[in-house]
Amino acid sequence: MANLLGALIGAAIDREDGDSGIKGAIIGTVAESAIRLAAPMIATYALGWLVQYGVRKGWQAATGDDPVDTRARAVRSA
Question: Which of 32-36, 38-42, 72-76 has the lowest mean pLDDT?
Fold first, then answer.
């Protein structure tokens, strides 16, 4: 039941070409499974990036100093 939507969408797309829709149903099921696997990883990465960006901007606002040297692209030690 969980992969039914992906299978139906894939079959509908495959039937537009005049095929039976079986191959599209299989591809739709695989694509839905891949999206379910990748979505939490992408969301975690995006949230981590936003937190890091916010901390960097907060540090820059508090000290007036950028913790990452843009010229050398290296983290300052002190």
Answer: 72-76
The number of domains in the chain is 1
Neighbours of 3 (CB within 10 A): 16
Q: Give me the residues paired with residue 68 across strands.
A: 75
Measure Cα distances from 17 to 4, 7, 54 in Å. Answer: 21, 16, 48
DSSP 8-state assignment for residue 16: T
Of 45, 15, 46, 14, which is closest to residue 30 (Cα–Cα)? 14
Alpha-carbon span 13 to 22, nearest angstrom = 11
Q: How confident is the model at residue 36 (pLDDT cuts 50, 70, 90)?
A: confident
Instruction: Tell me the whole-structure pTM to 2 decimals.
Output: 0.54
Residue 77 lies in a domain: no
Is there a domain that residue 63 lies in? yes
